[in-house]
Amino acid sequence: MSLILGIESSCDETAVAVVEDGGRVLSSQVASQIARHAEHGGVVPELAAREHLKALDVVLNAALTEAEVGLAEIDGIAVTQGPGLIPALLVGLNYAKGLAAANNLPLYGVNHFLAHIYGAFLPDRSDELADEANYPMLALVVSGGHTNLLLLHRSGRAEQLGGTLDDAAGEALDKAAKLLDLGYPGGPAVQRAAESGDCKAFHFPRPLLGQAGKAVAPENRFNFSFSGIKTALLYTVRDYRDRGEELPVADLAAGFQDAVVEVLVRKTFMAAREHGVKMIIAAGGVACNARLRSELENRAASGKFKLFLAPGKFCTDNAAMVAGIGYHYYLNNPEGSVEALGMDAYARLPQFSEVPFIRDVK
Ligand code: KG4
Ligand code: ZN
């Protein structure tokens, strides 16, 4: 039995978790800074860094208490290295380095994007990673920073099928919420407003789906573009304001959400059919969205695809997904390396063609 402590600080959540053997989540504590950033309408990196610094000790202690373990029982520390906001990442990274050095524990840097994928295997589903029958696997990663479709093979090879050409899905929802005065963060606010709206009242464009007689360039078949939907919303809102009419916020939110979800779902299943996919996973903050989840579930059932949606609390930023990956790195290199104490944070997603936790899983 091995216990990995995960630390996450890439954006506006300070999170610490303890995970046993890559799957059993003994604790997952998340301190959200949303209230601190809401007045600015988005995340302010320097403010996020200061808040992480204030929160880390408290969140660490809460995670150890919830897991009923002490630092002496921890076998390794995994920390988000990037992508994310550099000032925010540096706080978590340096905190983890200090903790690792002081307690003589191995330290592992984790890629936040891959950690989101791991969220679909929590809790207690990590055995699925080793099952040949699940591959090739299609991953839809939708968050505030990413919108990607990846084909994952049992060897660990990862093929990038597509990504966004402009805004990420979550970013588009956040901006839509701002236009509709729904506050920050936008995704949950749009979802809430949409509940009482009619999604057919407005029809927003479905970019890169090849509708309205427009063919999609082959290289864009699995790419996404959300800026056109956002601009269409902007013009609609402006027209209402120019006419001095009250905004039909619920209908607009429902129509916008519907357009984003339809594009995500149709491209996902197009890719799944074309690539002989056995299993589809969806992860990242936007994968919390109730409409997206139900559409994916309906279509997966009728297409006989196995579907794993990351549970809500492992969709948005958390440290259990970081600790989960950390376990696989620990198995591969239980002593760790002294170089880890010198590792740097990175802002952008590096090009990668392999998912190490799949490659190495036994
Ligand atoms: O994964 P995450 O917590 O952070 C990033 O790595 O970006 O994702 C945050 C994003 C935000 O854009 C937020 O608006 C969106 O996820 N989000 C949602 C929902 N909950 C969070 N979008 C749609 N529906 C939701 N229920
Ligand atoms: Zn994230």
Keywords, separated by commas or semicolons:
5-stranded mixed sheet; alpha/beta; 11 helices; 362 residues
How would you characterize the overall build of this protein?
The chain is an alpha/beta fold. 41% of the residues lie in helices and 17% in strands. The protein contains 11 helices and 10 strands. The strands form 2 sheets. Strands 3-2-1-4-5 form a 5-stranded mixed beta sheet, sandwiched between helices. The longest helix is centred in the C-terminal third of the chain and has 26 residues, at 249-274. The mean pLDDT is 96. Residues 11, 143-145, 170, 173-174, 185-188, 191, 284-286, 288-289, 316-317 line the site of 5'-O-[(R)-(carboxyoxy)(hydroxy)phosphoryl]adenosine. 5'-O-[(R)-(carboxyoxy)(hydroxy)phosphoryl]adenosine is lined by residues 11, 143-145, 170, 173-174, 185-188, 191, 284-286, 288-289, 316-317.
Instruction: Please state how the strands of the largest beta sheet are arranged side by side.
Output: 3-2-1-4-5
Shape: globular
Low-confidence stretches: none
> Count of DSSP helices?
11
Count of DSSP strands: 10
Biggest beta sheet attributes: 5 strands, mixed
Strand content: 15-25%
Element pattern in H and E: EEEHHEHEHEEEHHHHEHEHH
- Cofactors, ions, other ligands: 5'-O-[(R)-(carboxyoxy)(hydroxy)phosphoryl]adenosine, zinc ion
What level of helicity do the residues show? 40-55%
The average pLDDT value, as a whole number, equals 96
Provide the gyration radius in Å.
21 Å
Q: Which class of secondary structure composition applies to the elements?
A: alpha/beta
What is the CA–CA distance across the termini? Answer: 15 Å
